[in-house]
Amino acid sequence: MPTTRREFLQHSAALPALLGATASAPALDMPADLPRELKPTGADLGTLFAPVNELAERNRFAYSFLGDTFKTLGEFKAAGRAKVFEAFAYKPEKVDPKPELIERADCDGYTREKVVFSTGPLFRVPAYVLVPKGLKKPAPAVVDLHSHGGMFLFGKEKVIDFGKNHEVMTGYHERNYDGRPTATQLVGRGYVVIVIDALMFGERRVMMDADAKMGFDRTKYAVADVQGPNAKCRAKESTVVKGLALAGLTWPGVVTWDDIRTVDYLAARPDVDPKRIGCLGISMGGHRALYLAGLDDRIVAACVTGFMSTVKPMVKAHLDTHSFVHFVPHLHRWLDLPDVVSMAAPRALLVQQCAKDGLFPLAGMKESVEVIAKVYEKGGAKDKFTGRFYDEPHKFTRDMQADAFAFLDKHLK
What we know:
By secondary structure, the chain is of the alpha/beta class. Helices cover 37% and strands 16% of the residues.
């Protein structure tokens, strides 16, 4: 028989007492758990930290150039890149980008194009291309790789100043780029600059059925309209990882492949000198820059900002600070993060570290710079690597930007 309202209320009233009974151990036939001394770990993994950390410590990064596996830089790069793509589990056939110009806007000193092009059989990627006015010959170019920052509803807009920006982006620019988005600065220095939406960001974000009533056009979103869908995107990171896993691939694999294919499109443009292409980015943009530089020899100069550490020191308390997009399955059995970016050698590399960056352990940041320096020295390119620390939190400050731009000017102009 269905429960009456009176019976429901009686049961509800008794519930707190029942829950309170758990304060004393219940009488069970289940055997007691094995005794364990519980000590504070201060670790993201809690009681699982000790065994996972021990497994990490036993790993020797079998493909490190600083070991004895490879005698030449060429051997290291060939084997290392193969391992990265194996871990990415995503390397579709190359396709014709088939670029489509959506819009061209006349801006102060440059032209802004909105384009869409193919990076694989299934993905059409939206991008902005900023072109200096008055070019007399093909210009140097930069792939500007946007950050994460917990902001999914915007991607490529994170590094561009449109003049009248969305209010959400105005705050983001201030917090992450010291109020000076980098792409707009770079085009002002004479570079052709391209910025795409990474998968899960901007026009490639997840849109849930319940939010369809809002429409897809973000120019019509008030600040309050951004927060709810953005939180849903954040919660869907693990869902995207699961879906891609069942499809046999990885999220960072798709992101990096799109970045590499972006270089294809950029290098084919008549206004770009394909022998003078660089990249830069902070945070997730730095993550993207380290993989793009390590895997694509067309990147002549790369600036990795706010994303570099050896991985072993990160196991204790720097797991929850990072997005799923930063974790590549089983890659670190073979290569550490500084090993990956060191495959850029002998090409120019600048790594900018924020000494007060809570996303990484300081010891790991310092160690990573030492590893990269040793690889570059062993590869005969000691003078092409610069590692620099700034007494700053996780931010691409104007002083850091000035150093990054000077670095790019030196190697691309």
